[in-house]
UniProtKB/TrEMBL annotation:
Membrane-spanning intervals of the chain: 20-40, 52-72, 99-123, 135-157, 164-184, 221-243, 255-277
Keyword line: Membrane, Transmembrane, Transmembrane helix
Source organism, top-level taxon: Bacteria
Entry protein name: Uncharacterized protein
Organism the protein comes from: Paenibacillus woosongensis
Length: 733
């Protein structure tokens, strides 16, 4: 042991007494601190820090590669030092001492990466527990990357005595990072190979996000990390074995036994990682090869069958092993089944769940499953009852990989992502959950391309056994927790109840709740996005005060907002009074105006169905509400607004409209009339007209071709009549 310590001290001095090498961590720390200090308060701090590490840590691997090669070429593979082979010092001792000294130096980068992040995060008011968790993740990722890269560099230097090893080392660095990322992993969706990526941070996927990020890959990271460490040990053992073969040794048997043992250890460490991906690929390929899952062309032409449900009573419990056990009780009006005229009841439930029992009116019934469809016979004539009660018990473990390193749905530790379109509870009727993208040979949730309807029903949802507080679009009974505080493992049972017409999604993670007294809504987001949420709420509350001061019968259409910065592929939408924003990049994108529009005017997702503006002017009317705001509250003139001094996303139906959608420029004509009236001091009359149409409804929901109308169009003639009634013959002059 004394020999190893002296060798380690020698290697330590070679590194830590080199001013050039010691200047590199200092330079790294200065650059990192400057970058963190320049991050906007409105950006997600973790995402910004990760983007820095993804590039800079990959660049530091070049230092690791050079350091490993120099450590070997300095004496072991240098002809002038051949005499050192006669020293009574085993190659294993020399290699491990060099490796340990180099890792001690490289750990300076890891400590700076973690320490500076924690310090700057704390300065921004982010919770210490969150900071430390992220800091540990950065530290461990740096260390694992450095371990395998250093071992690879030392093996290359042992194998190649010529100076060409520097070129080969550079190629290995480039291939193991940028080339592998861009041309192998991403191009061919071979995310199983990311364990061979030299950088743990320069990997495409969800890990660079605070929400549903690296926390969802803990199992994979542990298995991958163990394999990488075992593989690094194999590389070092190979280097020692090659060197020992260059000189006579009496420990040949021990040498080959150690080499064989390292190979077996690496293979054993690879097995759990391979099994994890084997399960993912088998589940994914089963869906790709399933002919009942349609391609995009057939998917668009396939209708969604749905019947009425009066009440849902859902119970979802998470066991300690992560398996979900669900019980769904549906109260179905008999008239809904009679109108279908079918001999069986068809439900849709994601194929990931296995159904254990189905009861109809309290009696067990037989059932069949094909893919996502669940079919059961009607036990008796529905005419004899007012309603039919169904009870379905099902279970399954949710971690649905989409083949691109992302998830369709997941329940892992405190991370919960159960979107409504995943159909995690029984849907009444037949719908296609998945869709194939032919051009990329990948699988997507059908809702990414086609809006799906959901039944309007009374819901009661009980969740048990989850590790974090869950959020959904239904009101929670007996709300718990303090505003703005992290909500953790104290919430073992929650009950949500209310009316829903947009389906039910369920979310869990490291969330905080942010609200202000002047606004009847809150934003649910992650700790690093708290500052943005506070900024949006302040701006939003200003809009709210203005519109609430004159809009008659103003009933807010959203009561809470989910702002989720995540890589998971989902569309922004409104769901039962909750507006969901899924952003892949942080920062303010005019969210306050968007949310005020949703709160005041409701959805406009059916706007593309308006083909004739003369028959339906709801879009210009919605824009006129904002036109009045900019004229009165912001003090802008009509010319200022035309010149782009207002947010054109709110005014798109009035200015520079598409001639195909509004050939008569009715939107521009309405804006001009309102502008002249405001200039003449008749803003109260303009508000009266807008209030008249507001009470009729300016929401533009998506209308189903065969379904009942959800909202009535407002023709241009109605505008002319109301304008004539209020303004008389002055026409705004």
């Amino acid at each position: 042991m004394m020999k190893w310590k002296r060798q380690f001290a020698l290697e330590w001095n070679h590194i830590f007494r080199n001013p050039w090498l010691m200047g590199l961590p200092a330079l790294y720390g200065v650059l990192y601190a400057w970058f963190l200090s320049a991050v906007s308060p409105l950006n997600n701090f973790f995402n910004e820090a990760y983007s820095f590490h993804a590039l800079v840590q990959t660049l530091t691997l070049g230092i690791v590669m050079l350091l490993g090669i120099l450590a070997i070429r300095r004496d072991i593979r240098r002809p002038a030092y051949e005499w050192s082979t006669g020293l009574p010092l085993a190659y294993g001792m020399r290699i491990t001492a060099k490796f340990a000294a180099a890792m001690a130096y490289l750990t300076l980068f890891s400590l700076l990466a973690a320490g500076l992040f924690v310090a700057f995060s704390y300065g921004r008011g982010i919770e210490s527990a969150v900071n430390i968790s992220h800091g540990v993740y950065f530290f461990v990722s740096y260390e694992i990357s450095y371990v395998v890269t250093l071992a690879l560099a030392m093996l290359l230097a042992v194998c190649l005595q010529n100076r060409v090893v520097y070129l080969i080392g550079f190629c290995a660095w480039m291939f193991g990072t940028f080339f592998m990322q861009l041309f192998i992993v991403e191009r061919y969706n071979l995310y199983i190979l990311r364990t061979f990526h030299l950088s743990e941070l320069f990997v495409e996927g969800t890990r660079g996000y605070e929400l549903w990020g690296y926390g969802t890959d803990i199992d994979e990271m542990i298995r991958s990390g163990l394999f990488v460490l075992a593989f690094a040990a194999l590389l070092l053992t190979a280097a020692v074995t090659i060197l020992n073969l260059l000189r006579p040794t009496k420990h040949g048997a021990r040498l080959w036994f150690t080499a064989g043992l390292s190979v077996l250890l690496a293979c054993a460490a690879c097995a759990p990682y391979g099994l994890l991906w084997s399960d993912r690929y088998s589940s994914y390929n089963a869906k790709i090869n399933d002919e009942t899952i349609l391609d995009i062309v057939s998917f668009w032409d396939e209708p969604t069958e749905m019947f009425e449900v009066a009440n849902y009573d859902l119970v979802l419990e998470k066991a300690e092993n992560g398996v979900l056990f669900g019980t769904a009780r549906l109260e179905i009006p008999a008239s809904a089944l009679i109108s279908q005229g079918k001999e069986e009841i068809t439900l849709t439930l994601n194929r990931l769940f296995s159904v254990s029992e189905v009861k109809a009116n309290g009696d067990p019934v037989s059932f069949t499953r094909q893919g996502d469809l669940l079919s059961l016979p009607r036990s008796d004539a529905p005419e004899q009852r007012e309603s039919v009660s169904l009870e379905i018990r099902y279970s399954g473990k949710v971690a649905e990989d989409n083949g691109k390193g992302l998830y369709h749905a997941l329940v892992q530790r405190d991370n919960v992502l159960l979107p409504r379109d995943f159909v995690w509870y029984p849907f009444p009727g037949m719908r296609h959950v998945y869709m194939k993208e032919d051009w990329s040979n990948t699988l997507q949730l059908g809702s990414m391309y086609k809006e799906m309807p959901f039944p309007a029903a009374e819901y009661r949802l009980t969740v048990k056994g989850f590790d974090s507080k869950l959020y959904t679009s239904l009101p929670e009974l007996e709300m718990q927790g303090n505003n703005g505080k992290l909500l953790g493992a104290d919430f073992k049972m929650q009950v949500f109840q209310g009316f829903g017409k947009d389906g039910i999604s369920l979310f869990g993670g490291p969330f905080v709740e942010v609200s202000v007294p002047s606004l009847p809504s809150r934003i649910i987001t992650t700790p690093s996005s708290r500052a943005l949420a506070e900024h949006v709420l302040q701006e939003w509350s200003g809009y709210y005060r203005y519109f609430a001061s004159w809009v008659a019968d103003f009933e807010p259409k959203i009561q809470q907002v989910g702002y989720f910065v995540t890589k998971q592929m989902m569309n922004d939408r409104s769901e039962n009074g909750m507006y969901l924003i899924f952003a892949s990049h942080s920062g303010d994108n005019g969210y306050a105006g968007l949310l005020m529009t949703e709160m005041l005017l409701g959805t406009r997702k059916g706007s593309f169905q308006i083909e004739n503006m003369r028959k339906d002017i709801r879009l210009p009317l919605r824009s006129l509400m904002w036109y009045v705001y900019y004229r009165e509250a912001e003090g802008l003139s009509h010319k200022d607004i035309e010149n782009g001094m207002a947010d054109f996303r709110m005014l798109g139906a009035l200015f520079h409209t598409d001639s195909n959608e509004d050939p008569d420029n009715l939107g521009g004509r309405m804006a001009e009339e309102a502008g002249k009236a405001i200039d003449a001091g008749k803003i109260s009359q303009v508000k009266e007209i807008l209030n008249y149409f507001y009470t009729q409804g300016m929401e533009i929901p998506l209308e189903e071709p065969d379904g009942p109308a959800q909202a009535s169009p407002i023709p241009y003639e109605a505008w002319e009549r109301e304008w004539e009634r209020v303004m008389g013959h002055e026409n705004g002059a």
